[in-house]
């Protein structure tokens, strides 16, 4: 049973990690709490569904198109709804949730509330210590690790990464040093939304596509980033696996309460926050000020 | 002059009173409110069924109400009940107060229908429920007949009978597995979404499975909207289940079937999976839902009576898909309400209730008769049994949803075997045979 719990936890955690990394990135770099993050993941899922089922496009090509399209939509949303009010964090929160709701309603109008799905990139499964794992799940796990490595490399090894880190540390000083802080924020937003779309592309064959599919991941993703520490990529990554494992534990130890797995994960987040308000890897609020 | 002004005023007031307060039976149309989650398949079924009934009635000029022939007008009320109970009650209130509907059909989630039922009863409007299965909806009729007599169950039969049919399906498939795979004692995993209508079914299943000579391998209760159930599936396989008794009315039925198929979980799925009743299930599971069995109302090729084939074919021709059970708004209107209104010669709810509760009439899925409780009180709940309604057991077999039950079903020891026209034998998934024949 331990093997089941660990493996299921790692797979669940990878899905959350894929979503949380992008969310954490835009918060860490531009202090934007983008509550529409998982709505972009939902839109990407619909794009892939439409391309594969209605246009007969190959799933990989559909994924690429969806990522580009959703990134563009994300940039338009950023320019129209977020950038003008960026200085007002509460307004950004409200604006992004409104954008998410609007996207949900648009999808509901176009595709109705029918439950849809998209094909897996790789079919079949393998057994690890007697536990069956679908190849698509393994792919998600591998991609989550790759994405984290990629994001870390961009942040640490490139000039863009240096700019992102600088603006994250101090926007005014970064501006004085000649960096176009607004442009950096926009590029970070594009990467973040692109990651959400990418997460959608990889994860969606494991899920059901419907207009409300963004809500539960949003809650879990928020829990992950708060647990790991707002803006900390490492924290988001670790937090994802902690909550993934917590969910698995609930299913295996309290099968009658399997529906509680989300609540248990959120309770863990609250417990951690009570002990360590800045999250596992976050910067203490006092220090930040 | 003064007098003529006074008369004119009286005339105007009289016109106003007549326009506002005109009783429904003097209207030019019969308004039927169709309430359901219209952006979802269940609501679409409600609406499609009602549309067919309306077209059929209006094509013959309408219904005789006394000496007048009135056409039927439908009012679409989107209850959005999957997402908001408030939306559901508002939709009901709006249909009655603003659109002035005479009758209501539809509703899906028990939690929402209970609330909507109260509103309909407040206004003494006949409401035929076409979706919710909880017995409480009809127990209310017996307990407080004066208030709740305007509610009738249209479909499905109550969850006690749903569970009874599921047990029959379980027993049938259990016997097939036992014989084909040489299993001494079949283990059953109970997997039920967390919803009110399922609670009595789980309690019954836990008690009844051992009585059928099988063993309960465990109970899992995922969220109705869970999108990943691989952990549950791993646990079910670890528990050594040969059969999974599913009770799903929500989206979880898709990931469950899909992931079980993807991972080739060696346990036969039997029970209720509302998503598996739809034509779109095959595509939604990318074909991984093969061999899933679910209780159902309609299936292609089945003919229980002469009405069924006509209805199913007409529905497929009109909407391009199989009707699901919420499309029984058709039967509720055309075989339930319409003849009763004509017999009553009035739209008066009390007169119609008095006739409808005593009627027995054929519908595409069998015969509708209304039950009374042990004390002889009207329940307005549907009668179950070979003479009335039995439902079907359907299984996905290589992309086709075929009916596999009743197949040589003996309702009692003395009763003759029942096999409806168009029923085919049940198939065991090859990976189950492979796993258990080792």
Description:
Chain A is an all-alpha fold and 289 residues long. Chain A has one domain (2-213). Chain A has helices spanning 2-30, 37-54, 59-82, 89-111, 135-157, 159-169, 171-176, 181-203, 215-228, 233-253, 261-275, 285-288; strands spanning 125-128, 131-134. Chain A has a two-stranded antiparallel ribbon with strand order 1-2. In chain A, strand 1 and strand 2 (131-134) form a beta hairpin. The longest helix of chain A is centred in the N-terminal third of the chain and has 29 residues, at 2-30. Residues 285-289 of chain A have low confidence and may be disordered. By secondary structure, chain B is α/β, with parallel strands linked by helices. Chain B folds into 2 domains: 25-156 and 304-382, Response regulator (Rossmann fold, 3-Layer(aba) Sandwich), CATH 3.40.50; 160-296 and 406-436, Rossmann fold (3-Layer(aba) Sandwich). Chain B has a 6-stranded mixed beta sheet with strand order 2-3-1-4-5-6, sandwiched between helices. In chain B, helix 3 runs parallel beside helix 4 (110-122). The longest helix of chain B has 23 residues, at 159-181. Chain B is elongated. Chain A binds chain B through residues 1, 4, 7-8, 11-12, 15, 53, 108, 112-120, 123-125, 131-134, 136-137, 205-208, 210, 212-213, 216, 247-248, 251-252, 255-259, 261-262, and chain B through 37, 39-41, 44, 82-83, 193-194, 218-228, 230-235, 237-238, 251, 254-255, 258-259, 262-265, 275, 280, 283-286.
- Domain count of chain A: the total is 1
Distance between the termini of chain A: 46 Å
The CATH level-2 architecture of the largest domain in chain B is identified as 3-Layer(aba) Sandwich
Q: How many domains of chain B, as an integer?
A: 2
């Amino acid at each position: 049973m331990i093997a089941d719990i660990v493996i299921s936890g790692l797979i669940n955690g990878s899905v959350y990690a894929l979503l949380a990394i992008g969310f954490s990135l835009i918060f860490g770099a531009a202090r934007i709490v983008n509550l529409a993050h998982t709505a972009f993941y939902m839109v990407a899922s619909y794009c892939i569904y439409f391309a594969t089922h209605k246009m007969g496009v190959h799933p990989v090509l559909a994924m690429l198109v969806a990522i580009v399209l959703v990134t563009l939509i994300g940039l338009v949303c950023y320019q129209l709804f977020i950038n003008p009010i960026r200085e007002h964090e509460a307004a950004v929160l409200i604006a992004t949730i409104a954008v998410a709701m609007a996207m949900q309603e648009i999808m509901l109008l176009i595709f109705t509330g029918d439950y849809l799905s998209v094909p897996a990139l790789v079919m079949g499964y393998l057994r690890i210590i007697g536990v069956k794992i679908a190849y698509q799940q393994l792919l998600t796990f591998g991609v989550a690790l790759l994405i984290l490595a990629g994001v870390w490399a961009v942040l640490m090894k490139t000039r863009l990464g240096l700019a992102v880190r600088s603006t994250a540390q101090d926007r005014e000083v970064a501006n004085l040093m000649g960096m176009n802080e607004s442009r950096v924020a926009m590029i970070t937003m594009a990467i973040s939304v692109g990651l959400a779309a990418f997460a959608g592309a990889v994860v969606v064959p494991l899920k059901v596509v419907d207009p409300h599919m963004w809500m539960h991941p949003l809650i879990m993703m928020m829990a992950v980033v708060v647990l790991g520490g707002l803006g900390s990529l490492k924290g988001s990554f670790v937090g994802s696996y902690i909550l993934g494992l917590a969910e698995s534990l609930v299913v295996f130890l309290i099968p009658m309460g399997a529906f509680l797995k989300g609540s248990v994960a959120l309770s863990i987040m609250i417990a951690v926050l009570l002990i360590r308000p800045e999250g596992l890897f976050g910067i203490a609020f006092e220090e930040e000020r | 002059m003064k007098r003529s002004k006074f008369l004119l005023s009286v005339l105007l007031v009289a016109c106003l009173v007549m326009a506002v307060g005109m009783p429904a039976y003097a209207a030019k149309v019969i308004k039927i409110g169709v309430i359901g989650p219209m952006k979802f398949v269940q609501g679409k079924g409600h609406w499609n069924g009602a549309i067919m009934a309306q077209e059929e009635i209006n094509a013959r000029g309408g219904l005789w109400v006394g000496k007048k022939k009135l056409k039927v007008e439908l009012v679409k009320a989107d209850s959005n009940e999957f997402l908001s109970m408030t939306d559901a009650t508002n939709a009901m209130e709006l249909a009655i107060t603003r659109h002035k509907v005479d009758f209501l059909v539809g509703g899906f989630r028990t939690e929402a229908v209970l609330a909507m039922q109260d509103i309909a009863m407040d206004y003494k409007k006949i409401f035929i429920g076409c979706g919710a299965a909880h017995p409480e909806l009809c127990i209310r009729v017996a307990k407080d007949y004066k208030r709740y007599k305007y509610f009738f169950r249209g479909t499905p039969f109550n969850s006690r009978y749903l569970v009874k049919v599921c047990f029959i399906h379980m027993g049938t498939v259990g016997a097939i597995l036992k014989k084909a795979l040489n299993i001494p004692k079949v283990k059953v995993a109970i997997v039920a979404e967390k919803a009110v209508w399922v609670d009595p079914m789980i309690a019954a299943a836990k008690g009844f499975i051992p009585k059928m000579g099988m063993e309960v391998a465990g109970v899992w209760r995922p969220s109705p909207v869970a999108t990943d159930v691989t952990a549950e599936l791993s646990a079910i396989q670890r528990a050594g289940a040969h059969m999974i008794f599913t009770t799903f009315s929500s989206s979880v039925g898709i990931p469950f079937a899909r992931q079980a198929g993807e991972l080739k979980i060696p346990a036969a799925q039997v029970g209720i999976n509302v998503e598996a009743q739809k034509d779109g299930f095959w595509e939604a599971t990318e074909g991984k839902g093969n061999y899933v069995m679910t209780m159902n109302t309609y299936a292609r090729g089945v003919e229980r009576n002469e009405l069924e084939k006509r209805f199913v074919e007409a529905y497929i021709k009109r909407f391009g898909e199989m009707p699901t059970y919420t499309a029984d708004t058709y039967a509720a209107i055309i075989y339930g309400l319409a003849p009763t209104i004509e017999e009553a010669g009035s739209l008066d709810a009390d007169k119609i209730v008095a006739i409808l509760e005593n009627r027995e009439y054929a519908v595409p899925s069998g015969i509708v008769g209304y039950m009374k409780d042990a004390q002889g009180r009207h329940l307005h709940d549907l009668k179950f049994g070979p003479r009335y309604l039995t439902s079907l057991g359907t299984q996905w077999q290589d992309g086709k949803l075929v009916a596999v039950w009743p197949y040589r079903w003996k309702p009692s020891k003395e009763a003759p075997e029942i096999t409806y026209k168009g029923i085919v034998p049940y198939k065991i998934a090859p990976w189950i045979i492979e796993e258990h024949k080792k």
